[in-house]
Hints:
Blueprint: E1 19-27, E2 32-53, E3 57-62, E4 72-74, E5 83-100, E6 108-111, E7 123-126, E8 147-156, E9 160-163, E10 166-171, H1 184-187, E11 192-203, E12 210-213, E13 215-221, E14 224-229, H2 232-241, H3 245-256, E15 265-268, E16 277-278, E17 283-286, H4 298-306, E18 314-316, E19 324-327, H5 351-367, H6 369-389, H7 415-431, H8 433-447, E20 450-452, H9 454-464, H10 468-471, H11 474-479, H12 493-506, H13 513-516, H14 521-530, H15 537-547, H16 555-567, H17 574-583, H18 587-598, H19 604-617, H20 623-636
Parallel strand pairs: 1-8, 14-15, 15-17, 18-20
Antiparallel strand pairs: 1-2, 2-5, 3-5, 4-5, 6-7, 7-12, 8-11, 9-12, 10-11, 13-14, 16-17
Amino acid sequence: xxxxxxxxxTDSTHPxxxxxxxxxxxxxxxxxxxxxxxxxxxxxxxxxxxxxxxxLSVSSVIDPLSLSPLPFSLxxxxxxxxxxxxxxxxxxxxxxILSKTSPSSSALQWLSPPQTFNKTxxxxxxxxxxxxxxxxxxxxxxxxxxxxxxxxxxxxRQLSAVMAARHVERRAPLPSEAQGVCExxxxxxxxxxxxxFVMEQPIPPYLFAFAVGELGSREVRPRTRVxxxxxxxxLDAAAKEFAGMEEIMQVGERLFxxxxxxxxxxxxxxxxxxxxxxxxxxMVFLTPTVIKEDASGxxxxxxxxxxxxxxxxxxxxxxxHFWLNEDSLAVKMQSFAYYCDxxxxxxxxxxxxxxxxxxxxxxxxxxxxxxxxxxxxxxxKWLVKDMERFKDNMEFTKLKTCQAGVDPDDVYSVVPYExxxxxxxxxxxxxxxxxxxxxxxxxxxxxxxxxxDTDMFLNFLKANVPGIENEIDxxxxxxxxxxxxxxxxxxxNIYSKIVSLTNEFKLGRMPREDEVSDxxxxxxxxxxxxxxKSVEASQVTALDALYHLSESKxxxxxxxxxxxxxxARCRDYYGVVEKTLKEVGRILYLxxxxxAIVQCAGEEEDKAFARRVFSEACDSYHPIAQAVIEAxxxxxx
Length: 637
């Protein structure tokens, strides 16, 4: 076996799938999906074909032309990769696989009606990054295998579906299309409807996404519609929050070239969604906490938009080159270890750094240099922290890493985002922004809809910027550990002002209203984080009386304040803390609040409070969030 990816069973000697046709039957009572997966290969192939699966029940594998069964076998379970499905082919170009998901599928969250906004209908949504598509259908679950796909979703008539794909139609089921996933009489039940979609551009499997529930929508701009549960106040607030998306998209196009995905729609998910956002092409998934009623939620969306050029359009071949996805085209990256939020995991090393860079360029154009510099400063702070986190395993401070036998979720950090950003920023400083902008557009135009690795990027860089290897130590930047000496710590006037105000707070002076009048969540969060942990409870209460931070609709502000209140033993706020932990599912807010509670030295009452709240709230959390909080509690309780 010659694997193409340490996190996939895909064999480099086997052909890569070019198209997948999916037929899904959703059974909400059992929290399962019965599926028919039709894989198409580029040419007739004879020999073994190995696919990735996890927690799938595979009932049969069929030649779709002759309808004859094909031999197949499942390997023993690997705790990280799942099971390989190996099929014996004889001059076939297509293979049909019938399977069923498990209720514990790592890519799916099934919500009962009480877990939704309206509390009348169930809901299900996907999160396939980094290696979870294999828990929905058998596939070559690696970014190296970009595929086009079509999908037919058979769902209850009272619900509707969206996908990260073009919607074809909503119609009555046809008996000829069930493909064996269920009896025709079940497929064509009076209470069922089919939603049909097609993705005409090749994508990596981790970008496969859908949601099914009681959905509504609002048109925002010509290329953007906002979807959410059919709650008018949620839809109206989302439409208002993201009213400026067309202008942000135009900035991205001026910087990086044409937007290739036609639509940039947004789905605001139920509160249990554990991340800030997920950059699915054509349909970005968002947490409802990005609706802050001040349009600042557009910064999260700016990062997901930046992925439209890096990550989605150009993808790293595997997780070992993740920086190529995140490092440069995006602004405020939240790491799994510290921000515990974005979790566009390690599969985008190359585009993660590129996306961080791209996002910051978009933010600079839309919000100004001061805000962009603030974001760079925040990123630097978290990069330094992650370097300390990995001091005993410096392999994961490299941009180009070795991850054989490593769960990509376990080593997620800001390193690919922020060290990758620093690398691209270093190149920009060396050759100048105009030249670097020309290079970026050429890079995107050359590699769009492809997967690349670090060596391919460096070869392209050296070919298009002659002599760059003599000015910058490219090997040190990509294969060296730690922060290179020619990285640059940014200077932010806003950050300096905030630190100055926190120093004055230590001396007993509250910030004046004119000093904080233009602050949004990011500035307040920095201010609160920089206050001393030994702050008096009376000071916390006085600050809240002045600015009503515990009542803020912006969760960055609210959670940062509640952390401070917990640290100061302000038990009057524990009711607000409990309410917050039960109404949101975003890891960015859950983890620091639970951590603050259980770190109260020797306070068994606080630890018991944390255990009780988690036991009452955990069923409403996503499995990813459950695992994070369970790990946090087990460490301290």
